[in-house]
Specification:
The complex is a heterotrimer. Chain A is mostly helical. Chain A has one domain: MetI-like (MetI-like fold). Chain A has helices at about 10, 15-35, 55-60, 60-95, 100-110, 120-130, 135-140, 155-180, 185-190, 195-210, 210-225, 230-235, 240-250, 255-280, 280-285; strands at about 40, 45. By secondary structure, chain B is an alpha+beta fold. Helices cover about 25% and strands about 35% of the residues of chain B. In chain B, helix 3 (about 115-125) packs parallel to helix 5 and helix 4 (about 135-145) packs across helix 5 (about 160-175). Chain B is elongated, with a radius of gyration of 24 Å. Chain C has 2 domains: about 5-225, Rossmann fold (3-Layer(aba) Sandwich); about 240-365, OB fold (Dihydrolipoamide Acetyltransferase, E2P), CATH 2.40.50.100. Chain C is built from 10 helices and 20 strands. Chain C has a 6-stranded mixed β-sheet with strand order 6-7-8-3-9-10, with helices on both faces. In chain C, helix 2 crosses helix 3. The longest helix of chain C is centred in the middle third of the chain and has 18 residues, at about 170-185. The chains are: A mainly alpha, B alpha+beta, C alpha+beta. Chains B and C meet through helix 1, helix 6, helix 7, helix 8 and strand 16 of B and helix 5, helix 6, helix 7, strand 16 and strand 17 of C.
Chain lengths: ~290, ~375, ~375
């Protein structure tokens, strides 16, 4: 019998386990979260009486809605930072290293931060960025600064440095992959037709690695928008992101309010992904 | 020598042409039609192949030749019609129970297995007569010897050359002693030199094994040189099925002539008993003058003589004066390229063993002539 | 008058010490079609890439129309390269690909379109100009690559294995088309191939390369009928080669001592002395087949100066109007002879004892 025949079940049974998993652990909790965000919250208790009170609180109190703006601002800074640092690295690995082995080794090196646990990584930042940390000592010995810089640790700057370092690999990986798939003759053909380095970057490399750029941007965005741990430890709790709001509210059993923040965060992430996907049709290009 | 003479030469060369008097056909395809949705890929295909025959299926891509092979192999079943092997209808019988072997174009070797394991695969895994490891080993050695790969048993398939891979694929198929060996463009992935030597080897192998080979190809030289009989497929239909020398002497349709790549095909129309195109006309034998309307004029490259413009014609010759563009040298032959008054191409091929090469001036005009009896006209225009 | 392309003493040594090209010299006239032919690794592609500016020269000069271009980068050279993979820009449609070179050179859009239209018409691409090239056949892709290279009006077009990526059944057709196109445009073409049939069919002159060195530069006919080295004799054509030692010479005709007796051929090289080991090269096209009985025929023996190899036909294969005979000589050698079915007016079926003859002037003796 040919694979084209048979009823719906024989053709699609492969989808059932995955679909069941998604419905049970993604769709159902999402609906639940939206529902709970309209429940009535008192100091000690929560009741399934529908109200918009939690929503009103979220958008009227600066401490909460500023967390939303903080999240978006940090996200944009980290996104730009990872691209400025990551794309040149990807160009080097993807285009100039032509040996597959060396390419793999370099990509593995980029993943090394993930070999240590999150806690170790955070703790390790302190002797790096602190008042008497390595960075300050080096800058002072090199006579670039005379006083130790105090804004490196327990500030937004410190937090952003940490995030860029962790998430850099999510840009380097996909972009390198796309660049390494470009036929070197295509680049040579453009040169042959008179294009200089700048034009080749704009006309050939950028468009041909776009799916990689978008994939990298989606990875970084989803991870940064949902962050709560790095701000908590590296910013010395000075920066409050939506993730931190949710953690705090859940910690004090404010389920309805945590749900509101959760819905807002989900909507923001969804909008970002839809926006990024509009730049390129990943299905078509990858 | 005449066309009939040509046929005699080949018949002598290959012994008697099988197929006419060999009794019960081994493979019969009966009125087979294959559709994919609205698309008809094969249309009312009928053919008989006899034991020991080497049949080539020639056609451009999209002519349905690979589909025909897949239907015989049992990877697909026909929408309509019947396929008999040894007189038994095999439609619905799965591929592994048909006793038919298929050699894939890209060889489809198992990349994770060694050469010997690839060859043994069918022997160790088939539904009936499954061999023990020791028995299979004996057969593998025998097969390696047959295809000339002794000593390569323990190589990985990515450590051997293209030609060797081709032989491993062949050995893997032949190891199961199939009644019919189907080959899907078996030489397509090889380079030119290898192709020439594999052509001879395949034919020898077939003679030695006494198996029936059905060989699908897009290359007319392969088809003409290797076959006892050629099937020319044209958009899902059999345009001609005959001994190669007969197909060559008298192509049934313009598409067949086109597929053989040895004929000038001039587009034009028949009007009042002669063939006319934009700015010139070509003569026709009386039996071709009955046509009218759009037509294709056909004459073999090697039937055309190149002469100076003022040469006088013999009776029964057709001729045209046109411009010489350039020539192609292939050692054994020189092909002179010409441009007809309306821009269509025309070629004259000189076989140097038979005719002396000429020094022609590019851009100059020459008289081309050929015997009227060697020119055919087909209704319609080929693209 | 300056040559369209001139390579003088060009050498290329790679960083790892491999000598890819060694003292390459070539002068090309305008409108010539030149083939660089050789086995893989012979340096032909490196040579082409040096002409295009993609590889630096270790030694020597390359001049295009009298101007030395050694220091020019590919984008500054008046050459266009057609890559074997075609290297089309996958994110641009057919027209955008073709116009790219003009856009980079800031040609105004009106002129750009006109020039692209013009070349597309020449190459029969008009119908697919604005489509993506995803659905295009190999032959169409190649024409797009050609159009993209030609539209910038290069002095020289470089082609790397132009037929290599095509199906076998398309090759012959495209080969003829390329030849027509080159004659029509009158531009110098230099192409690289490892297939002798392509080189012989398309080129005005063929450069045969081996191990980075030029073995012979000649017109196809000369290469085929007058190979200068043992390598060329083995690489080009379908020659039967009999090894032996030089016995004696009488002007241009010499006698070679072989395992089949004394045989005669043509010797051009004055430096070959008696007793030197030589190859007697007999092209398949000049061999004649006679029934064995003609070995007794004085007239025939005299005509061929005694050149007769006795053997028996192993196979007779008819390919259209061609017939190929394989003849086994003394169980030790097989010669292949291709003829036209009309030539002999008889068949030599397998097993027929025959005599294979050739005129001394048509066999060649080369030093080994």
């Amino acid at each position: 019998m040919s694979g084209q025949r048979g009823n719906w079940f024989t053709r699609h049974w492969q989808l059932i386990p995955g679909s069941a998993w998604m419905i049970l652990f993604l769709i159902a909790p999402l609906i639940m979260m939206i529902y709970v965000s309209f429940w009535t919250q008192t100091s000690f208790d929560i009741k399934p009486d529908l109200t918009t009170k939690s929503w009103q609180t979220f958008f009227s109190q600066p401490v909460y809605y500023s967390a939303l703006w903080n999240t978006i601002r940090v996200w944009l800074i980290v996104l730009v930072g990872t691209f400025v640092l990551g794309v040149p690295v990807a160009i080097f690995i993807g285009l100039f290293v032509r040996s597959n082995t060396v390419q793999t080794i370099l990509l593995v090196l980029a993943v090394i931060p993930f070999w240590t646990s999150f806690l170790v990584r955070i703790v390790a930042w302190k002797p790096m960025l602190g008042q008497n940390g390595a960075l300050n000592i080096i800058l002072m010995k090199a006579h670039i600064i005379s006083e130790p810089l105090s804004f490196l640790l327990y500030t937004e700057v410190g937090m952003i440095i940490g995030m860029i370092q962790i998430y850099l690999v999510f840009v380097v990986g996909p972009v390198t992959f796309m660049l390494s798939r470009i036929d070197p003759n295509v680049i040579e053909a453009a040169r042959d037709l008179g294009a200089g380095t700048g034009r080749i970057f704009k006309d050939i490399l950028l468009p041909l690695s776009r799916p990689g750029l978008v994939t990298g941007a989606i990875f970084v965005s989803v991870l940064v928008l949902g962050e709560f741990a790095t701000p908590a430890s590296l910013s010395g709790r000075k920066v409050n992101l939506l993730g931190n709001v949710i953690v705090t509210q859940v910690g004090s059993l404010k389920w309805a309010f945590a749900s509101v923040a959760g819905v807002v965060l989900t909507v923001v992430i969804a909008l970002v992904i839809v926006g990024l996907l509009r730049i390129t049709d990943l299905r078509k290009e990858v | 020598m005449s066309a009939e003479g040509t046929a005699t030469v080949a018949a002598d060369a290959t012994g008697t042409v099988p197929g006419r008097d060999a009794g019960q056909p081994l493979l019969q395809v009966r009125n087979v039609t294959q559709r994919y949705g609205d698309k008809v890929v094969l249309r009312n295909v009928d053919l008989d192949v006899f034991e020991n025959e080497y049949v080539t299926v020639l056609g451009p891509s999209g002519s349905g030749k690979s589909v025909l092979l897949r239907l015989i192999a049992g990877f697909e079943d026909p929408t309509e019609g019947e396929i008999d092997i040894s007189g038994r209808n095999v439609v619905g019988v799965p591929a592994h129970l048909r006793n038919v072997g298929l050699v894939f174009q890209n060889f489809a070797l198992f990349p994770h297995l060694k050469v010997g394991q690839n060859i043994a695969y069918g022997l160790r895994n088939r539904a009936h007569d499954r061999l023990s490891a020791a028995e299979a080993d004996v057969k593998v050695e025998e097969m390696l010897h047959l295809v000339g790969l002794e000593g390569l048993k323990d190589r990985r398939v990515n450590q051997i050359s293209g030609g060797q891979r081709q032989r491993v694929a062949l050995a893997r198929t032949l190891a199961t002693d199939p009644k019919i060996v189907l080959l899907d463009e078996p030489l397509g992935a090889l380079d030119a030199n290898l192709r020439a030597s594999m052509k001879i080897e395949l034919r020898k192998l077939q003679t030695r094994l006494g198996a029936t080979f059905v060989h699908v190809t897009g290359n007319e030289e392969e088809a003409l040189a290797m076959a006892d009989r050629i099937i020319v497929l044209e958009r899902g239909r059999i345009a001609q099925f005959d001994a190669p020398e007969r197909v060559f002497a008298r192509p049934e349709t313009a598409q067949v002539a086109f597929a053989l790549s040895r004929f000038n095909l001039v587009k034009g129309r028949v009007e009042g008993g002669s063939f006319v195109a934009d700015g010139f006309s070509l003569c026709l034998a009386p039996d071709h003058q009955v046509l009218s309307g759009p037509a294709t004029y056909c004459v073999g490259y090697d039937r055309v003589d190149v002469e100076e413009v003022d040469t006088s014609l013999a009776p029964g010759d057709c001729s045209i004066v046109c411009k010489h563009v350039s020539h192609e040298y292939s050692g054994a032959t020189v092909t002179y390229l010409f441009e007809l008054p309306d821009g269509q191409h025309f070629e004259a091929q000189y076989h140097l063993h038979h005719r002396k090469a000429k020094r022609l001036e590019e851009g100059a005009e020459y008289l081309l002539r050929w015997p009227m009896a060697r020119a055919f006209v087909y209704p319609g225009v080929v693209e | 008058m300056a040559y369209d392309l001139e390579l003088s003493h060009v050498s290329k040594v790679f960083d790892n010490g491999t000598v890819a090209v060694d003292d390459f010299n070539l002068q090309v006239d305008k409108g010539e079609f030149i083939a660089l032919l050789g086995p893989s690794g012979c340096g032909k592609t490196t040579t082409l890439r040096m002409i295009g500016g993609f590889e630096d020269l270790t030694k020597g000069t390359i001049a295009i129309r009298g101007r030395v271009v050694n220091d020019l980068s590919p984008e500054q050279r008046p050459t266009s390269m057609i890559f074997q993979s075609y290297a089309l820009f996958p994110h641009m449609n057919v027209r955008e690909n073709i116009e790219y070179g003009l856009r980079v050179k800031k040609v105004p859009s009106k002129e750009r379109h006109a020039r692209a239209d013009d070349i597309m018409e020449k190459l029969d691409l008009t119908g697919i100009a604005d489509g993506a090239f995803e659905g295009l056949s190999g032959g169409q892709r190649q024409r797009v690559a050609l159009a993209r290279g030609l539209v910038v009006e290069p002095d020289i077009l470089l082609l790397d294995e132009p037929l290599g990526a095509l199906d076998a059944d398309l090759r012959k057709r495209i080969q003829t088309e390329l030849r027509y196109l080159q004659k029509q445009l009158g531009i110098t073409f230099v192409f690289v191939t490892h297939a002798q049939s392509e080189a012989l069919a398309m080129a005005d002159r063929v450069v045969v390369m081996n191990n980075g060195r030029v073995e012979q530069i000649a017109e196809p006919e000369i290469l085929y009928t007058r190979p200068r080295t043992a390598f060329v004799a083995r690489f080009i054509g379908r020659n039967s080669i009999i090894e032996g030692t030089l016995d004696s010479r009488d002007g241009a005709v010499a006698t070679v001592d072989t395992e089949f007796g004394k045989l005669r051929g043509h010797l051009l090289d004055d430096g070959v002395v008696q007793g030197a080991s030589v190859d007697l090269v007999i092209p398949s096209e000049i061999m004649e087949l006679y029934p064995e009985a003609s070995y007794q025929d004085e007239a025939i023996l005299k005509q061929y100066s005694g050149n007769c190899l006795l053997g028996s036909v192993r196979a007779e294969t008819v390919v259209g109007s061609l017939v190929v005979y394989e003849v086994e000589i003394c169980d030790t050698m097989t010669v292949e002879l291709e003829s036209h079915v009309d030539k002999y007016g008889r068949s030599y079926p397998a097993g027929t004892p025959v005599c294979v003859s050739w005129m001394p002037a048509d066999g060649h003796i080369v030093a080994t």
